[in-house]
């Protein structure tokens, strides 16, 4: 949906001089600095899929805001380009660019002004006025957006009756009224207290589950990035140092800087079942011969076989005892062997939520995908390893 190619931005030099300086030698940052400029973003490339929540994370001054401002060309890149749905934003006419900013891309900032003398509903509808949408339609859309952010009944209130978190929801509602394809959120929750922040994050995830917007979310808080991001791009000094999913970044930090950053994160909340699972030892299909499955079980010394139904979902677990009985009775399929007891969790369940479920059954915890198909298993030892390494990391950091 959005593709950024080799974005580079130099401030405080003319574009021509900036480009000459960038070409001057290998140490671009230094060359720019010596010429009196600031290399805010240096050769950053990424693409954001439709429906993805893409997080850009980095400390203050790492170039995050400059990157997102280049996406809708509020900042013009020195070199590089942005493609929006395949169209080069740099080649858009002023009119197309206005359309992009007003209708297709919504923005939410950390601080934005609500009009104190207007109701929350009117505030939420504000963005539509400039677009010439009739008043009745404006208010209807504002009500719908307020509903989406959990303020459905409060449209008649005035901003000063609202807490910081509620005001920020009004800002989000304002961005949603135009039903944009993409939402760009620049540190939207940074000014909120931790509890409110947490509840806003949950609200955003809920909104995302229901509406699947394409969201680019900027934050300097790694825990927030991990909680929200489908993928996270870590920036430092204008460059991308790592791009991946939260569990990928935790498991394999690209360098010491990212490692130091992630050692602060509570891994038990970030590591998912998918990140710690391994392939199941023995699986079987419902129509199979019990004797053959029993032979496989004995070879692997597993204590049960996960049996899948024709639709791919788990039908149950066949234990060695049930399989031997069926084999003795010369039964032709596994239908009557499904006695084994097991538990399954979705692959995106965090470790902290499933660790107590392991070890309670003869077979390891089953991990299933969205269509309830078996994708892996988590034996108890795997969980203990993951928790131990999480704890080790925390004590190292302390
Ligand atoms: N308009 C500008 N003119 C000159 N320098 C700028 C301008 N905007 C940003 N910079 C510089 O570019 C670098 C990157 O800034 P940017 O605001 O993109 O970082 P950031 O990661 O978003 O930081 P923050 O979280 O503090 O907003 C910084 O050194 C900043 O001082």
* Mean pLDDT over the full residue set: 88
Domains (count):
2
Main sheet: which strands, in order across?
6-7-8-3-9-10
User: Compute the gyration radius: what is it?
Assistant: 26 Å
Briefly note the CATH topology name of the largest domain.
Rossmann fold
Q: Give the amount of beta strand, in percent.
A: 15-25%
- Number of H/I helices: 17
Q: Please give the alpha-carbon distance between the first and last residues.
A: 41 Å
- The level-1 CATH class of the largest domain: Alpha Beta
Largest sheet: 6 strands, mixed
Shape: globular
Number of strands: 16
Secondary structure: helix percent: 40-55%
Domain ABC transporter: 19-262
Keywords: Amino-acid transport, ATP-binding, CBS domain, Nucleotide-binding, Transport
Protein name: Glycine betaine/L-proline ABC transporter ATP-binding protein
Family: Belongs to the ABC transporter superfamily.
Structure description:
- There is one protein chain.
- By secondary structure, this protein is an alpha/beta fold.
- It folds into two domains: about 1-270, P-loop containing nucleotide triphosphate hydrolases (Rossmann fold); about 275-385, CBS-domain.
- It has 17 helices and 16 strands.
- The chain has helices at about 15-25, 30-35, 65-70, 95-105, 120-130, 135-150, 165-175, 195-210, 220-230, 245-250, 255-260, 265-270, 275, 290-300, 320-330, 350-355, 380-395, and strands at about 1-10, 40-50, 55, 80-85, 85-90, 105-110, 180-185, 215-220, 230-235, 240-245, 285, 305-310, 315-320, 345, 365-370, 375-380.
- The strands form four sheets. A six-stranded mixed β-sheet has the order 6-7-8-3-9-10, with helices on both faces.
- Strand 9 and strand 10 (about 240-245) form a beta hairpin.
- Helix 6 crosses helix 7 and helix 14 runs antiparallel to helix 15.
- The longest helix is centred in the middle third of the chain and has 18 residues, at about 195-210.
- It is globular.
- The two termini are about 40 Å apart.
- The mean pLDDT is about 90.
- The structure holds adenosine-5'-triphosphate.
- Adenosine-5'-triphosphate binds near residues 40, 60, 65 and 220.
